[in-house]
Amino acid sequence: MALKGIDIFKMSPKKNCKECGVPTCMAFSMKVAQGAMKIEQCPYMGADVIAKLSEATAPPMKTIQVGDLKLGGETVLYRHEKTFVSKTLYAVCVSDASDVDAVLADAQKVDYERIGEREYVEMIFVTYAGNKDAYVEAAKKAAAIGREVILDVEDADVAEAALAAIADKKPVLNGATEANVDAFNALATKYGVVMGVKAEGLDALYDLTAKIEGMGNKNLILNVCDTSIKEAFAEAVQIRRASLKNTDRTFGYPTIVNVAKLAAGDQAMQTALASLFTMKYGSVVVMETMTYAQALPLYGLRQNIFTDPQKPMKVEPKVYPINGSDENSICCVTVDFALTYFVVSGELERSGVPINMLITDAGGYSVLTAWAAGKLSASTIAKSVNECLADQKNKTLILPGKVAVLKGEIQEKLPDWNIVIGPREAVELVQFLKEYK
Questions:
Q1: Which of the four, 10, 92, 196, 415, has the lowest number of CB atoms within 10 Å?
Q2: How does pLDDT run along the chain (437 residues), one tens digit per residue?
Q3: What is the CA radius of gyration of the chain?
Q4: Are residues 32 and 102 in the same domain?
Q5: Which residue range forms the structural domain that includes residue 232?
Q6: What is the pTM assigned to this prediction?
Q7: 349 within some domain
Q8: Whether residue 224 sits in one domain with residue 183
Q9: Do residue 334 and residue 293 come from a single domain?
Q10: Which of 57, 72, 98 is the last residue of a domain?
Q11: CATH code, domain carrying 281
């Protein structure tokens, strides 16, 4: 049971020193209970109390580290309650029976940036199909491309050979079952890697997880059913609800969902399932392939879900040259709200007119909201122009039509510039630019 603020306060030093950044120990205790602060932020909390409270206030779902990536650590079932912590990771499946080089080459083709975040295939899921030597070679090739590796194998001898070959990569050892749990746990401990747990049905998975925890291993990932879409969805939801709603830490681990097996050979279905389990509640989703046609909607969905719903998505405030623009091209200005950026930049590109798109810091708000909040004003626009367009020779600046009221004040602050009122809607930009040019 999670501790309440008053329980934490009873064990606090009660100094009200404010050194943690909070006015009182009671306020600090409430923030710790809510997960907004860590108990270690109190400089006067005793080591024994920290140890006791850290366990009690830790998220019901354990955070698992795989290389530089994090899984789990979730505290809520729905993102509007707070925010999700660790985004779903996508893996591409290879095996010792497949054309490993071709699959890995295709996996590396999807690699782009969206709203300041790199979007790529984060993991390679290496499945054992029966050829030990070929499997070890496949593991080596997967590790060599700079992605995290999951070794999907239930044979302890093959698993050890693959682990030894890429030990420095610290792959996930996925394949602990009731039949091999002792050997696999020994391997996971020896090589210091995360272990994936498999079982037939939730009851068996729960019992096996509890058994492994009894062995002292809590560095785990749980595999949901890979033979039935209905059962896979049910298990993913029930595992997450058991850990977060019922605070059952035995199920407090991230999950692997293998949609490559659930919809073998059907890329469209795999993409649909990947979107489903991105929302409910796969930590790693394994697919046969990842093309741009699959990636663009999936990564866009993931970015929308795994962002703080209380903070707007923003792009970096700077100048974005469009259609080969330079210092002799006209300029336009708009806000840093991600949706505004994508809509406006898309229309500007469609126009074919070279133009410098100046994004100003408006707190991530839309044009009218930023203007109403004082985030978009003549002063902020003038400041951005002076900082980002100091070397600009063509001093024509197109202003969003919705804030035409700012033209006079901006003209006063930028007397060398020609301030032009643009259309109110982005869809009108193409015609506007062609006529203006």
A1: 415
A2: 456 788 888 888 898 999 998 999 999 988 887 777 888 889 888 888 887 777 666 778 999 999 999 999 998 999 888 889 899 999 999 999 999 999 999 999 999 988 878 999 999 999 999 999 999 999 999 999 999 999 999 999 999 999 999 999 999 999 999 999 999 999 999 999 999 999 999 999 999 999 999 999 999 999 999 999 999 999 999 999 999 998 899 999 999 999 999 999 999 999 999 999 999 999 999 999 999 999 999 999 999 899 887 777 889 999 999 999 999 999 999 999 998 999 999 999 999 999 999 999 999 999 999 999 999 999 999 999 999 999 999 999 999 999 999 999 999 999 999 999 999 999 999 999 988 86
A3: 27
A4: no
A5: 63-305
A6: 0.79
A7: yes
A8: yes
A9: no
A10: 57
A11: 3.20.20.20
